Amino acid sequence: MKNDKNMNQIKNLPGELENSLKELIISKSKKGRLSCEKAFEIALIIKVMPAIVGYMADKLNIRFAKCQLGLFGYKPQKKILKPASNINSDIMALIEKKQKENCISCKNIWEIASLKETSKIDVASLCERLKLKIKSCQLGEF
User: Fold this and answer.
1) Relative orientation angle of helices 50-59 and 36-46, to the nearest 10 degrees
2) Contact 121, 90 (CB under 8 A)
3) If 73 and its partner were Cys, which of 65, 98, 120, 133 is the partner (CB 3.0–4.6 Å)?
4) Could you state, in order of their start, the residue ranges of all structural domains in the chain?
């Protein structure tokens, strides 16, 4: 199981909400795979944390595809994230503030991308250039 905290939250979901969550995950998945983007759409629709969607997808044996940071779920190479070739010093400064012990969270990358009105993968590429480990997937994948 990915996370016991998420399991407890799922146990506390009203039956109707849990069923809606399952139905949405199944309907938006293709060939047993659900894109990161679709998972976040589901979280917004159902009004649950993305980790709950991740946990339920795992429970339904549905795998995630096309991580919005480019880390996993792309065929055939799995990962499409490459170190950035161009440097944006404003974004780099924010990354430096948010990183701890050469790690940065998925959520922090999303926040920086939103603040700077750029793509998540562009921020992740700068993190890759800085050789930062990206951790704490909001869906619970890593």
Assistant:
1) 110
2) no
3) 65
4) 4-65, 89-135
Position 12 scores a pLDDT of 72
pLDDT for the residue 10: 63
Q: What is the pLDDT of residue 16?
A: 82
Listed in order, strand segments (DSSP E) in the chain are: 33-35, 63-65, 103-105, 133-135
The first and second tokens of residue 88, run together, are 């944006």
Mean pLDDT of 54-63: 95
Picking from 2, 115, 4, the residue whose alpha carbon sits closest to that of residue 60 is 2
> Residue 78 pairs with which residues in a beta bridge?
74
CB atoms within 10 A of CB 127: 26
Residue 2 in this model has a pLDDT that exceeds 60: no
Report residue 122 as tokens: 């562009």
Q: Which of 107, 3, 6 is nearest to 52 (CA)?
A: 6
Over residues 110-139, the pLDDT tens digits come to 999 999 999 999 999 999 999 999 999 999
Tell me the residue type at 141: E
